[in-house]
Amino acid sequence: MAQYGVLCFSRTWRNPVLWSHYADKHRGICLGFDVPDHLLKSVTYLKTRAPLAGLLQQGASSSDPGTLFHTKFAHWQYEEEIRRIVRLDQAVEQGGHHFWPFGAELELREVVAGSRCNLSENELRRSLGERAEGVTITKARPAFTRFEIVTQQRGFQFRRRRTSAAPMMGGHV
After folding, report:
1. In this predicted model, what pLDDT tens digit does every residue of 107-160 receive, in sequence order?
2. 3-state secondary structure of 93
3. What is the pLDDT of residues 4-44, one digit of tens each?
4. What pLDDT score does 91 carry?
5. Nearest-angstrom CA–CA distance, 56 and 172
6. Please, are residues 136 and 111 in contact by the beta-carbon 8 Å criterion?
């Protein structure tokens, strides 16, 4: 199994819990990709852990990780996760980590900056270099009336106003 890696994606970037867990409390970015459907498989969420032997009998073996790599505890269901299993010998290794190259099977289409991300649209576009063409860059924010992340209509111009409280004089709370 050590020869395999897992590319994990979500069907949505609008869940605030995803931003808290995976994007440094809304300070990070979300990358949106086009990936051919036949390369992806939805994660199955279970309330009880299936025995490893049972998962192996369902098609997960050392030569085909199958079900084993597509199963998670039911409490992670909010992630709406889909995965692609890849061979690490086809990945780019750098500093002990493996990276899957962008290309026809992993096309970058969107960059969503978190509501607390300090990078400007220009900085993001410059960091993309040649890949910037055809990539939509947007700023996200929490929705005003529901638990959801939405597109900031004012784009990157909107900055959270900093307020300073005046010191209280002569009183105790």
Report:
1. 999 999 999 999 999 999 999 999 999 999 999 999 999 999 999 998 886 555
2. strand
3. 999 999 999 999 999 999 999 999 999 999 999 999 999 99
4. 96
5. 65
6. yes
Could you write out the three-class secondary structure of 14-72?
CCHHHHHHHCCCCCCEEEEEECCHHHCEECEEECCCCCHHHHHHCCCCCCCCHHHHHEE
The encoded tokens of residue 143 equal 């929705």
Q: How many helices (H) and strands (E) does the chain have?
A: 3, 11
Residue 114: CA atoms inside 13 Å, Cβ hemisphere, count?
Answer: 19
Contact 4, 100 (CB under 8 A): no
State phi, psi for 64 to the nearest 5 degrees.
Answer: -145, 100
Locus of tokens 């995803």: 18
Angle at 76 (CA atoms; ends 44, 63), nearest 5 degrees: 40
Specify the residue for token string 């073996």: 61
Among 22-31, 67-76, 98-107, the range scoring the smallest mean pLDDT is 67-76
